[in-house]
Amino acid sequence: MSDQSVTIEGATCAPPLPHNEQIVMGHGAGGRMSHQLIQKAFLPAFDNPALRAGDDAASLESNLHHAQRLAISTDAHVVTPLFFPGGDIGRLAVCGTVNDVAMLGAKPLYLTAGFILEEGLPMETLQRVIASMKSAAEEAGVQIVAGDTKVVQKGKADGLYITTAGVGVVRAGAKIGGAQAKADDVVILSGSLGDHGIAVLGARGELGFQSAIQSDVAPLNHLIEAMLDASNNIHVLRDPTRGGLATTLNEIATQSNVGILLDETALPIRPEVGAACEMLGFDPLYIANEGKLVAMVAREDAESVLKAMQATRYGEDACIVGEVTDAPRGRVLLKTALGSTRVVDMLSGEMLPRIC
Amino acid sequence: MSDQSVTIEGATCAPPLPHNEQIVMGHGAGGRMSHQLIQKAFLPAFDNPALRAGDDAASLESNLHHAQRLAISTDAHVVTPLFFPGGDIGRLAVCGTVNDVAMLGAKPLYLTAGFILEEGLPMETLQRVIASMKSAAEEAGVQIVAGDTKVVQKGKADGLYITTAGVGVVRAGAKIGGAQAKADDVVILSGSLGDHGIAVLGARGELGFQSAIQSDVAPLNHLIEAMLDASNNIHVLRDPTRGGLATTLNEIATQSNVGILLDETALPIRPEVGAACEMLGFDPLYIANEGKLVAMVAREDAESVLKAMQATRYGEDACIVGEVTDAPRGRVLLKTALGSTRVVDMLSGEMLPRIC
Description:
Two copies of one chain form a homodimer.
Chain A: H1 32-46, H2 49-52, E1 58-61, E2 69-77, E3 83-84, E4 87-88, H3 89-102, E5 106-118, H4 123-140, E6 143-152, E7 160-170, E8 186-189, H5 195-203, H6 221-230, E9 234-238, H7 244-256, E10 259-263, H8 271-280, E11 294-297, H9 302-310, E12 319-325, E13 332-335, E14 341-343
Parallel strand pairs in A: 5-6, 10-13
Antiparallel strand pairs in A: 1-2, 2-7, 3-4, 5-7, 8-11, 8-12, 9-11, 10-12, 13-14
């Protein structure tokens, strides 16, 4: 989970967590508040090298064969509504974890799924979700090998929640992670920004107008395989989910201690998404994506990686959106369409609750 | 999860799942209704050999080294109240998954934890739960290597839910599973029955009297290691959680196509638990345990396994409680204290909701 990247932030930056504080929605939004929660509450307790690495999945010794490593990840899914244009909580639960495992340069093999069902949930709803998980798992080529089902009283959940965990095997020699970005790397984005968040908002009827925007939720492991086949110089892979591209890039800039310079004119944003964001006062850089990745790639391999991406289903619109710089370290800058440069900060607190 | 054992039941036994049916509490109780839900809804979609095996964890090829296998499991935890005598949701979340992985004869190595937090949860509550998870993980010797946190609006959860997943490595040569019980095996139980369920009920104030009963929630992996060191002829290991020993043994009898004969006078039940059950009309055979295991062991090794168990912290009270028989296949029988014999069926529907 991208949450983990907070590990790298200096412990001095965040105020201490007051003991009488309560959980608020912003703690789950994937931005600065989420990071502080993890840094202050989870990490001091569970501290270990894999967690400290701060990537979307943990890279681990397998204890099986010295040359290979396991990648393990988990994601809890609480989206509302359960069904939205382009996807549903089942597809989200499979793709979210498949992607987190794959972002470490690993081949996802096995998933587990823990269901928390609300009493009164129509069986037909559950069966639609299961069918969607089956189809997403088949598309990704993973097996759902263990599961658990609990039922809570009416009013103690919101239909159903699904927590998936995934296990994969890291490709031999791959050394991919949020801390591996290097100055002069090229920043590649696999496609348009903001589709998922806006599609979910539309499904809630909160846009105030009809919208044809579909969520991009998709398994990206095959796209990543194509990229890894094309280059041995991919340094970072990350999916900009909760908190959007802005938050993900801030995490990477901090983990790798580099600067990142984005080119606003290069950012692919669908006109409908751009229009919705403008009307609602949202910045697409902070909207969640569920079928996109950002990669930091050595400049000499950028073209071949781009070509490999564009040849795949979920990388057709891949493009270069920026570069990694020496300075300012830990900062993300945006060269605007007007030629000025502004700082792009991490999402602070809550923007869109319950979107993934 | 023990849920999976339904795989083995004939598809003809259960009525089809009506499409207009709703989820009720009984679907989460771990008995026959849970089994039917899994058999009818989950298995047809996710079908694969590991899931079909019907054990508490999935045994999988690691793709790493042909000689060794991975064990993977998951459990969602929704207990109410969050804290109870002898434990809390955090200790439960760690031990439940550690135990499921270990029951396959595997050494648990890594856990993931997905948190669903209710808006307004006191930070202090979360921190107590995290501290408890840390302590349980240390006791078990596992690392929590990946996590995720989501926040849902007030009233859309019950404080917090935790879904853990675990990965372990199966001991070389171990062939342990619910389908491996053999006629003439001895049935060994690691300690007293019903402590967890009654402790949780007491914490809810539903006993109607003060009780000193503590939950038995504990990691059993070190106990299992001692057993495996003592014998190569351990055929089944299973923790009788939701649905109790009766349900677990019915699962095993079906999976292994054997009979199981219990000796009522041999069943270890604490006087306080027995008294509580009597007053409330519960049968301790159906009450959940969270720190007990039942084993089917070749008769010639029973004594050495028993001795190894009794030398460990969580196996002190281990004893022989029955045997595996040729017939009646798929049935569990109880020789009562009065000398008669009765059928012990699987838990049907709901008994104690939200206990693990």
